[in-house]
Design brief:
This protein is an all-alpha fold. The protein has a domain at 55-91. It has helices spanning 10-22, 27-41, 55-70, 80-91. The longest helix has 16 residues, at 55-70. It starts with 9 loop residues before the first helix and ends with a helix. It comes from Leptotrichia shahii.
């Protein structure tokens, strides 16, 4: 097995080493597990999410802020039955 150099910031490396020590392995073993799992699955073996909200969410937030600002909170109902009847009426 040949040695490979990777760059990891000191804080991340230290925290990872502590975690993996608690899990009974060293950093090299953990990295090898990650790489083998990525190869096996042919993808990164966990979900990576975009931290930025989607456009629909941003539009909904803007709409809610505008409703709050103007006091126009939309249509209200006195019961769930009333709301369902209204929804069904407006479907046609």
């Amino acid at each position: 097995m040949s040695a490979t150099t990777i760059n990891i910031d000191d804080t991340t490396k230290k925290e990872a080493q502590e975690l993996f020590k608690d899990l009974g392995m060293n950093l090299t073993t953990a990295i090898n597990i990650f790489l083998k799992q990525a190869i096996k699955e042919q993808k990164i073996p966990f979900e990576i999410r975009n931290p930025r909200p989607r456009q629909e969410l941003l539009a909904a937030i803007k709409e809610a802020e505008e409703m709050e600002r103007t006091g126009n909170m939309g249509k209200g109902y006195s019961s769930a039955k009333e709301m369902i009847e209204d929804i069904l009426e407006n479907e046609e």
